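Dataset card, provenance and construction

Sequences and ligand SMILES were collected as paired inputs. For each pair, a complete structure of the chain with the small molecule in place was predicted and serialized as structure tokens. The example below shows a pair involving flavin-adenine dinucleotide. Curators did not alter the output after generation; any descriptive sentences attached to a record were derived from the structure itself.
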Amino acid sequence: MHIDYDVTVVGAGTSGVISAIQAARAGAKTLLIEKTGQPGGTATSGGVDFPGLFHAWGRQVIAGIGWELVTRTVAEAGGVLPDFSKWETYRHWQLQIPVNAPLYTCILDEALRQTHVSVSYHTMVATVKEDADNVRLTLCGREGLSTVNTTVLIDASGDANAVELAGYKLRRNSEIQPCTPMIRVGGYDPATLDEKAIEAVFHKAMATGRLTRLDTGMSGSIITFLRNHGSNCIHVRAEEDPASSSGRSRMEQDARAAVLRLYRFLRSCSGLSELQLEYIAPECGILEGATIAG
Ligand SMILES: Cc1cc2nc3c(=O)[nH]c(=O)nc-3n(C[C@H](O)[C@H](O)[C@H](O)COP(=O)(O)OP(=O)(O)OC[C@H]3O[C@@H](n4cnc5c(N)ncnc54)[C@H](O)[C@@H]3O)c2cc1C
């Protein structure tokens, strides 16, 4: 198969979906390639379903297609937007917008269809070659390899994957922020827990090495974790480059090992024997992969 496009976007996360819709609205024949089976990237596959920050000091500073899609999702879910004028009362993260992630994926796909973006899920880029007037890509899909010629290539992979395949240099920091598997635990009522007793066994578990410092993230508090039912709480140090498949595989397994460690510990605590692991994001959230040098 060999098809030509005006614009090809690699990665259907927030930036890729918006770039593809904008390109198609401007009349470009547009292809969007995504390695998973759904759009949204970190906001959906990574479970970070609370986009921000469209406002600063009470004033909207970001609008456009992202705002359109997020507010449409909130409206269709029957939700309300935070009161952005209360920026002096609330911390910035308290004014992020919770979206219903499954609905958000459907709305993103609807918008991609309405704008006639050609979407290729379950597809990755294998090679990128530039010549004078266009870029030639080899894609790897379930059918095998195919080639695409495109005038413009937009790398929205989050890790500059396509840019690196094109031969450009990337920069990787020697130390990067830890990664986060987003989770939700349930099956208990935080109001009925004996927090002091749980804290005591938690500190013992940390002291004996049963749990590690990052297992309850930045707060380091098991009580915050339980009151929030999990969420953005567990952090995992990346031992290898998380922009590579091998580094990412190691990180995903380390993340699930941390989840299991915490789950087993919690179920052994008083009042938590019925605790359930209700959700773990299909992909670990990465805050810092690679950036383009120069
Ligand atoms: C734990 C955590 C907490 C965060 N908290 C917040 C917050 O509170 N508020 C906020 O606004 N932002 C937050 N962020 C940041 C925000 O989630 C990201 O900035 C945003 O999602 C990045 O969007 P993106 O489209 O650039 O990349 P991504 O969302 O990562 O999308 C990249 C897409 O490309 C695909 N892809 C990657 N490589 C390839 C390839 N080679 N071929 C094909 N497809 C590929 C991926 O599957 C993915 O779908 C947080 C991030 C994390 C990890």
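Derived descriptions for this record:
The chain has a mean pLDDT of 94.
The pocket of flavin-adenine dinucleotide is lined by residues 10-16, 33-36, 41-43, 45-46, 48, 50-52, 93, 96, 124-125, 156-158, 161, 180, 232, 285-287 (CB under 6 Å).
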